[in-house]
Amino acid sequence: ATTGAEACEALAYHFDAAGQPQLAAAYAETAGDRAVFASALDRAKSQYRAALGALDRLEFSPGVAKRWAAIAQRLGLASVFDPSRDVLPVFERAIGLANDSGDAAAVARARYWLGYLHYALGDAPAALAHLGEARRHAGQTNDMRLSVQGDATLGQALASAGRYGEALALLDAAIAIKRGHRSGAGNAVGLTYSLACKGYALGDKGDFGAAEACFEEALNDTGCDQPEVIGSVRGWYAAVRLWQGRYEEAMHLAGEACREGERVRSLHLM
C-alpha cells in the first residue's frame, strides 16, 4: 500500500510536472514533514529541497519569502544529523532574504541554521562566526527559546573547537534552563544533545566519571527516543570509552550508533 509520505511525494512530482508550483510546494513540504516524523532524513531533505525549488518558480512576495524561510529551517533540522556542503547555499540565501526583510529574528534564525550546519560539518571557525552573529541578533528580539538554543549550539561548537572552558559554561547554563522547563512530554532533543556534548568535553579533559553521568542521563533520563539523536549520543559515548581504553564497550556503543544511522539512512551517523 502507498504510504501518506509516498503519496505526497508522487503528487508533488505530478504537480511540478504539470506546471503548478504552488501545489507542488505544498505536497513536497507535507512529504518532508512526514519523512521527518518517520526519521527518514534523506527523504525529508529531498522533499524540502523540492518544495523550495517549487517556491522559487512563484512570483516572489513577502508571504512566499516567509514560507521559503520556514521550509529552509526544517531542511536545516533534517540536515544536521546527516550534513552535506551542498545545502549551505540555501542558508546563505536565507540570510540574504532575512537581511532584506529587516527582521532581526529572521536574521538570527538564518544565521543559527547556517552556523549549526557548519558545526555539523566540522567547520568550527565558520560555525562560531555565524552562531555569534545569531546570538547578537537574537539579543535584539524577545525570542528566548532561540536565545537558549543558540547558546547551547554555540557551546557545542566551542566544545568542537576544544575551547572547553567557554563551552562548558554555555552548556551548563543551557542544560539548567532545559531541565527547569521540562514538562515530561516530548523528546527533549536539545537537553539530550547538550548533555552529550558536555560529556565528550569532560571526557576529553579526562573527567570520565562526570562524562559518564552526562551520557547516562542523555540516554536514560531525558525521554528522547529520536534515533538520529540517540545515534549521535552513542557515537560520542563510544569515543569517550575509547579514550578510557574500554574497547569492548566502545565497540558495542559504536555498533548501536551505526544501527541508528541505518534506521534514519544517515551516512554521517553510520
Short description:
With 270 residues, the chain is mainly alpha-helical.
Please describe what this structure looks like.
By secondary structure, this protein is mostly helical. It contains 13 helices and no strands. It has helices at about 5-15, 20-35, 40-55, 60-80, 90-100, 105-120, 125-140, 145-160, 165-180, 190-205, 210-220, 225-245, 245-265. Helix 4 runs parallel beside helix 6 and helix 5 packs antiparallel against helix 6 (about 105-120). It is globular, with a radius of gyration of 19 Å. The model has no long low-confidence stretch (mean pLDDT about 90).
Keywords:
mainly alpha, 270 residues
Give the secondary structure arrangement, pairings included.
Elements: H1 4-17, H2 21-37, H3 41-55, H4 62-79, H5 88-101, H6 104-120, H7 124-138, H8 144-160, H9 164-180, H10 189-204, H11 208-220, H12 227-244, H13 247-264
Helix pairs in contact: 1-2, 2-3, 3-4, 4-5, 4-6, 5-6, 6-7, 6-8, 7-8, 8-9, 8-10, 9-10, 10-11, 10-12, 11-12, 12-13
Main sheet, how many strands, which sense, barrel?
A: none
What is the overall pLDDT average? 91
Unreliable segments of 5+ consecutive residues = none
* Envelope shape: globular
User: What is the total tally of β strands?
Assistant: 0
Tell me roughly what share of residues is in helical segments: over 70%
Structure classification? mainly alpha
| Proportion of strand residues | under 5%
Task: Please compute the radius of gyration using only Cα atoms.
Answer: 19 Å
Q: How far apart, in Å, are the first and last alpha carbons? A: 29 Å
Total of DSSP H or I helical runs spanning 4+ residues: 13
Order of helices and strands: HHHHHHHHHHHHH
